[in-house]
User: What shape does this take?
Amino acid sequence: MKDLQQKVQESVDGMVASGAERGLQVAVYRYGEQVVDAVAGIADSATGRLVTSDTPFNCYSLGKGATATVAHVLVERGLFGYDTPIVEL
Assistant: This one.
């Protein structure tokens, strides 16, 4: 898993260096155990505070992708169709 940590860290470092990201964290868990904890960049440009493993990030619209995936699976299983009015569900 050390290779995975190194690869992910190199990727996030590269994103920050390229200017694509200002600061980010990637955490990967496998079977409940954290196997990657990669951080890079600035959390607060006003103070210069760096991103750490404990830096909170606001996440918006995370439910949309999961909801769409569940809807597609349910349609595939025949539980309703794409044309089914929401009121019927």
